[in-house]
Design goal:
The chain is of the alpha/beta class. It contains 10 helices and 5 strands.
């Protein structure tokens, strides 16, 4: 009887875990559905990353002369971009990829070393280059969200090292949005953030646009 009960428990656990989906699985399915309903344009600018892109729902209005495909998914880390690299890259034929990601890596583990995040980014960059060896690839610097101030030292180090890496790559740039988000005293402007002090207001996105425009293909 005990053996039967144990077998039943094992089967129950197996069925339970089989039903569990990986983190962000549904977001990726939503992207696939969008691609079926509206096949992505070729030679567009592909945005990949976390919620700063996800919440930029009207990004096309900020760049009216560009074709933008927004594939940001909120909460994502560079580890997730690596895990879902095929799904994030294979369906598209962009002329440029712009990445905003890394902030959540530190938020997920406040002891995380900057070098770990840099290596995660390099791994994703390598996957992009495997598929798209010649297109423009840009990385937007990690923003200094007031709600994550204790993480700023690691973020600053990661930004510096990723900037150094990108400067050495062909057809690549580091888009630094740090200064444009500061006041005249060099402090982060809290008025550019909504109540959670993490996500941005339309004015924050307008300032991003002013910095990004010269890099847009």
């Amino acid at each position: 009887m005990k053996k039967i009960f144990s077998a039943f428990l094992m089967l129950t656990f197996a069925l339970f875990f089989a039903q569990e989906k990986p983190m962000f699985w549904q977001d990726i399915q939503n992207f696939k559905k969008l691609n079926l309903e509206n096949p992505p344009a070729e030679n567009a600018i592909l945005l990949v990353g976390s919620s700063s892109f996800t919440k930029w729902t009207d990004v096309a209005n900020y760049f009216p002369d560009k074709t933008i495909i927004n594939r940001g998914f909120g909460g994502s880390r560079l580890t997730d971009l690596n895990d879902y690299a095929e799904d994030l890259l294979n369906p598209y034929q962009p002329k440029q990829i712009i990445i905003y990601c890394g902030e959540n890596d530190f938020a997920d583990n406040d002891k995380l070393k900057a070098d770990v995040v840099v290596e995660r980014f390099k791994a994703f960059y390598k996957k992009i280059r495997t598929k798209f060896p010649k297109i423009e690839v840009d990385y937007i610097s990690i923003k200094y969200s007031p709600s994550r101030e204790k993480l700023w030292p690691q973020m600053k180090e990661a930004n510096k090292k990723i900037a150094e890496f990108m400067k050495k790559q062909p057809n690549a740039d580091f888009i630094d949005i740090t200064k444009v988000m500061q006041d005249e005293n060099g402090n982060v402007r809290k008025d550019l953030f909504v109540e959670d002090m993490l996500h941005m207001t339309p004015e924050g996105y307008r300032l991003w646009t002013s910095v990004m425009n010269p890099y847009m293909k």
